[in-house]
């Protein structure tokens, strides 16, 4: 046993998968302490807010309670142009310039010569050639779109001061109007702003923190995988030991039901059982039990085949001749020889349980949505509310990455264990 443990700890594949899982568990344990609260709480009024740090605009304009700093930063104007002159506006400018170049025969205004990523080239060409009176074969509505675009482009360099007016109540009787002027080189320290929030992965369609939700979903999905893996491994181990050792009519009966479940695809059973339970009764643990009760087949068959080869070994025959009971023989003379395989089967069952939950939730048959988040439910929400069509990558890419990472690490651990316990696969 000690030798096997040393070999496992020396296995590069096992340790790589183990470290990844430990890092994920560390994240699950630490992040809720740093950002406590209900992961399903709706904190945003908008759908699919992109990742970033957000602070209160109201608090940042309260110039009376904090000091305002003046900076002259190099490149500040260029950054404003970069942010205000967006992709859609640049594409529209290029389309108008190409139309104008084709009609007037102006060189340099072709599809290939205009670089939509060169903002300054586009602006120069626009100011040189744009004429709001030209329609270029467009409808009046389309021409007005470009006129509004011209007004937005002109506003990019509008550095006029902003005047902020606040009404101040004094003793609930007198009102004063305070005017604060904000110029283009005013800055405030973000640490002085009372209300701010960091959203590493933004918010999803309901305005909920994706990062907080993802961490809690990992914990729930891992719990589902562990429960499902434990149930499936326990059932498969028990049936495989009994069928392999006893044989005869008992083996025939167990294998009949095993073959019956083998013929029916597991996902079909999962769908039928989950659908029959109903949405309100489908908690996370209920789904885990259902997955476990339908995932034991290949474990039972594999354990049975190994036990059938072990029951005729000399040490087992010696225990029979010594008058030992069947449970004692199975536990002390057979189980230790299949223990390594059972551990590997359990690792794969955990991974399969997580993937099965994700598949069920994608079909709308996972745990109830008002209970706890899971990785599958997060994917279902992202798909249902068209995050992929709205460009909200943060609502689904991290979830897909975590599912792939967990499955990859667990399968890597299983491969490492297989190389340790299977002499034919050991690396020289």
Give the topology, please.
Layout: H1 2-10, H2 12-34, E1 52-55, H3 57-60, E2 69-70, H4 76-84, H5 87-104, H6 119-129, H7 140-155, E3 162-170, E4 174-182, E5 186-187, E6 196-199, H8 210-246, H9 248-263, H10 266-277, H11 284-293, H12 297-310, H13 314-321, H14 326-362, H15 375-384, H16 397-421
Antiparallel strand pairs: 1-6, 2-5, 3-4
Q: Could you explain how this protein is built, in words?
A:
The structure is a single chain. With 428 residues, the protein is mainly alpha-helical. The protein has three domains: 2-42 and 206-425, MetI-like fold; 57-69 and 159-194, no CATH class; 86-155. It has helices at 2-10, 12-34, 57-60, 76-84, 87-104, 119-129, 140-155, 210-246, 248-263, 266-277, 284-293, 297-310, 314-321, 326-362, 375-384, 397-421; strands at 52-55, 69-70, 162-170, 174-182, 186-187, 196-199. Strands 1-6 form a two-stranded antiparallel sheet. It has a two-stranded antiparallel ribbon with strand order 2-5. Strand 3 and strand 4 (174-182) form a beta hairpin. Helix 5 (87-104) crosses helix 6 (119-129), helix 8 (210-246) packs antiparallel against helix 14 (326-362) and helix 12 (297-310) packs antiparallel against helix 14. The protein is elongated, with a radius of gyration of 33 Å. 28% of the residues are buried. The model has no long low-confidence stretch (mean pLDDT 84).
